[in-house]
Amino acid sequence: MSLTVTDIYAGAGGSSTGLVNAGLELKLAANHWQVAIDTHSANHPYAEHICADIQNYDMRRLPKTDILWASPICTEISPAGGNRGLNRQMDDEEWKALPKKAFVRTRCTALEVIRAAQVHRYKVVLVENVIEFATKWELFDWWLEGMKILGYNAQIVCVSSAHIGDEFNLPAPQWRDRLYIVFTRVGIRLPDVKPRPLAYCEVCDDDVRAVQTWRRPRKGQKVGVGKYGKQYDYTCPCGHAIVEPYVRAASSIINWADLGIRIADRAEHGLDPLADTTMERIAAGLEMHPVAPSLVTINHGGHDGRIVRPDLAPLPSRTAKIGEGLLIPSGQFPHATSSPDLAAPPFVIELRNHGKARRIDRPLSVIAAGGNHHGLIIPYRKGVKAKLTSEPLHTLSTRDSAGLVRRAPRVEDCYFRMLKWREQMNAQRFPSDYIVTGDSDAAKTMQAGNAVSCNVAQWLGQCVAAVL
What we know:
By secondary structure, the protein is an alpha+beta fold. Helices cover 21% and strands 24% of the residues.
């Protein structure tokens, strides 16, 4: 008999897809937005679906299952800031056409998790949220205690989607720091949910399973809660080195056959000129990487524009205020001209050993191939200003949030486009043939940005299935 799961706040189905891939049986998925439910039901036709406001739903009507997955979020604590600071570079009219609740009520309150658990006493409850859920929500400790009163042990897992996966469950090619809480009924063995990404240790001169190591917390900071590179690092089990886990490059999900429109020709296609700040950031990207493709962050007000090499690292985390444009120097199309039958060149250059070529007789972590692109999992330090399109994406947002640019002698001669909804779905590790409904690209992009990364849900599903 298979283990069963209920998924409330299911969205487009990232959590459900991962759990099903882990061998669980999805009984019911719920969400308040009909478009998301339509997408979910198109891909999970054997599960029951309800479109309802969970805050006003009678939890007794939910099916009795072994596991509950919930992705509640309060928009005021999300890094995206709810619907504030929406990207004005996009087609505003298209975004305004979305129903208000698609923005404001993206997912509901965490209090409903307690209501559902009190009624059904699930063996395991899995909760996903932003890190700020634990650090900025003033009721978090009270909420956590409520679940303990109901008879649950709690394990807090903070991890980036870029660091979870293996050869059978590829990592997501984006930096997406998220908080996962695993509630297990008292009396059930605790699952092993410690992330152990593959990394190279220079001291041992070998690939190792890295250990998540927390830095000394600052005053008032919660222990074991935080983001990669800020509150924690990964170290070798030998105890003598900080290591960088292998990550999957952003280039692996980019459609390199679609170069977009030449910037100087935007008016001919009925498009507005790019904003001055966008043009400045594109120029900076050309100066930093004149002979290599790069991604340029164009619509985040908190910095002067990240320059990312998509072939060396993941994409930045997708949020409502982050977006990248792809910049390709003229005459350089290494990905578009790659043979679809080749996963990678006969040797691999990595960001370790001072950029030396890695011998092909050494095992590679993961190679992803298909179509007109190839992707490689490589070590890359988050926080470095310059990045490549081989990097994972940053956390996906609910808005169009990445663009494609082709390098030329002048900025005006570059080709530019935003990353498309399919690419953003792929960055969340959805199957490439996943059906996405919606009357506009905006609606589809929003579903991608709100989704749980499928690879992390699959990993957690496998962890809890091992103890159930």
